[in-house]
Amino acid sequence: MVFSSVQFIFFFLPVVLALYFAFPRAGRNAVLLVASLVFYTWGAGDLVGLLVFSIICNFLFGQAIGHAVDAERYKQRNALLAADILVNLALLGYFKYANFTVSQIDVLWRTVGLERIHWSSVALPIGISFFTFHGLSYCVDVARGRSRALRNIVDFGLYMTLFPQLVAGPIIRYHEIASQFSSRAVGIADVSEGASRFMWGLAKKVVIADAVAELANGAFDLPAGSRSFTAAWVGVLAYTVQIYFDFSGYSDMAIGLARMFGFKFPENFNRPYSAYSVTDFWRRWHITLSNWFRDYLYIPLGGNVGSERRTHVNLLIVFFATGLWHGANWTFIIWGLYHGAVMLIERSKGWRYLDKAPVPWLNRAITLLLVAVGWVMFRAQNVHTALDFYRAMFNPFHHATTDLVSLGLGRKNLVALLIGLTVFFVPRGLVIGRSLELSDERWVDPARLAVLCVVLPYVAVLVVSGTFSPFLYFQF
Amino acid sequence: VHVLVLAGFVVFLVVPLILTLVGRRPGASDNRKPSPAPALRGDALLQTSTYQQLDRYLQDRFAFRALAIRISAKLNDKLWKGDTDQVRRGKGEWLYYQPSLTQLCTESMSPRQGTAVLEGLVSALQHNGKTVRYLLAPEKTSIYPENLTKRSVTDSQCALSAREQIRKGLGSHDWFLDIYDALFQLKASSPQPIYQPRDTHWTEQGAGVMLRTLVNSVQPGLWNDAEYENRGDQPFEPDLTRLLGLPQAISTPHYEVRRPGVVTTEQASDPVKGTFPVRHFTSVSSAGAPLIPGETVMIYDSFSIGSIPNLAPFFADITFVHWNAVGSSYDLPSRIKAAGTVLMEGAEREFTWRMRDRVAQTGLVEGIGR
What we know:
The complex is a heterodimer of chains A (about 475) and B (about 375).
Chain A: H1 6-22, H2 25-44, H3 48-70, H4 74-111, H5 128-143, H6 153-161, H7 174-177, H8 188-220, H9 229-260, H10 278-284, H11 287-301, H12 308-326, H13 330-349, H14 360-379, H15 383-393, H16 411-424, H17 431-437, H18 446-465
Helix pairs in contact in A: 1-2, 2-6, 3-4, 3-5, 3-6, 4-5, 8-9, 8-16, 8-18, 9-14, 9-15, 11-12, 12-13, 13-14, 14-15
Chain B: H1 2-21, H2 48-61, H3 65-80, E1 87-89, E2 95-97, H4 99-102, H5 111-127, E3 131-137, H6 140-143, H7 150-170, E4 176-178, H8 180-189, H9 204-218, E5 228-236, H10 239-244, E6 250-257, E7 262-266, E8 279-285, E9 292-300, H11 302-305, H12 308-311, E10 315-322, H13 332-338, E11 341-347, H14 351-360, H15 364-368
Parallel strand pairs in B: 3-4, 3-11, 9-10, 9-11
Antiparallel strand pairs in B: 1-2, 5-6, 7-8, 8-10
Helix pairs in contact in B: 5-7, 5-14
């Protein structure tokens, strides 16, 4: 069930909100846990069993690690933590990467003349990357003594499954939210701020992201060799807009929903396309993922404490993992390593401090270009498609059999693309820019509300009419 | 302000929910029955298909659905001028059915394989002594390509080539009826379009070409243009505007066959689950007007559906079976065995799909007997 659907907005959400506020405080976490499990089952079916297994497993490990910490038995703590990490990574490895790994081995096998490997595909449970990372964060935080283990499995289950963040984040590190399970207050201001932010995110998703997605899909789905120079650039710009408005819109919805239930989630985006360098971009894009990898991978690897060479290796490992986390495909791995490589260059040349450079807008433009070039690899079905796309992008004389007509560039998606691109260049200091786009605490803001009043009816029409699936002839 | 925002949000969420729960139902926008409720018990609660059905159930019953669809369609029509998944906007008021641009190229069966299947079917029918005719109904994109946009022209190239392959593949058979030339002639001479600009199909004037060709191919000279009379305008709802979410009623010239001395009676129809009923007509002639004797079976689709009453008066006994009934519970092989003449009409875009799903996979040839 996606947030931008009729069944979520007009059926699931009002029922859950009503039940949540109808219950006394002591029962509210249980209400949310049940709602979250229903939400997950709605999309994943019997794979909810895996989520429940992950909850029980991490809860028990957390308890044991907590006892070991309290008793100052550090070897035992380390062994338990290692076992927990192993179980979580094994789950993630099997369900997310087994198909990819087997297919790669199969290619090697057949290259050396061996028989094809017979393998039944493993179904990918939705949100496994997120709930696995939540489980790991919990046990590591408890092991580090940063937070105490939860005594109540309902509270822990809620941390793992809380439906606003269950399938697409933000990724919550346990210590960021630990205290909110036992004590949180929900006032009118929380619900209205949350509602406002949810609607804002919904508008970003259905008005801008969905409209430009048609253009991006058109460009990326063109057959090899038929993509013209202009089609490629329109496609990559459209995807650059799409992925930001889609993902940040989803994060806004998640943060807004959580706020309605009294939870304060960390921010996930902060004007990433205004970044002055790729290093700066990663401080602004999917912030919770960057923070997770920094806390639980980069720093344990040694971070930037050791030699320059060691730091570079650590960075590349983190970006390899970041790429792989996004999906089991070479395209994601290459995309991750590309970002890692650019950051290494920025580190070695001192370019990551370019916000102090004499022509800041040029740095921003170059960064946006570098990021957009990376999106091609991220979005392409495979490396061949990405390379074909790059050939069209960087050769204005590239011969192509089809052009913009094949993308279906219509008024709606053109307007959405222009609005999307304009938002990227709204100056930070401009009042309307700040109140519309910056991640501040005040989402009930006159400028935002004015925009919502105009846009929301259109959003509702788009969400509801999106279910229109007429038959040419009456279906009997 | 917070209280106002909260109140607005509650109204936004709760009013549609309450109206839906109290039974305010959307109109029949989708041209189908609303999805039924899933069974929410036992193992079904752990199956994603249950929740997908629940999604459809809730969506179909959402109180403001018809209104939202209409507003969205109007915005699309007046402001965005955009295409939808099913409808491509052409030049001026012209609309095109999107699958007609590509469908022959998205099927697993190739045109060559499709023509081979049809040849097998016709061979079996002829082997059993039947007179057979197959008429390929040209798509609007074939007869009016000049009103397609550049994008649609680009997208339709593959399908146009596939149509050529089918016509070439079948062109040498005397049972194959190609009406491209006749339609282009009528188009050139007619002041009005012979295909509905906002519908997938031809007008009744255009349908006259099919009727004449079919009837004369079985009994030359039986068709008389003067007997196909324009009876004035009649209300008509174009299918493509319905697919856009903007159903409209227009007036269109209505034609009727009037054969002096021929009385045609429709017998009780046989309902077929999931598709149109099988319709059976008998005709008697009291003034010496000739009829095609014996029993005839015609397998048809939407290009003929409006012409059934105009075709029946030429046949002593004719049964109309929709392509979707082929392979269903209806015993078509038995009906064909009793018939002396078998007519088939099918739209170009669905040729390979029908040859695969309705002929090759239903065992029709085996049912008839080689």
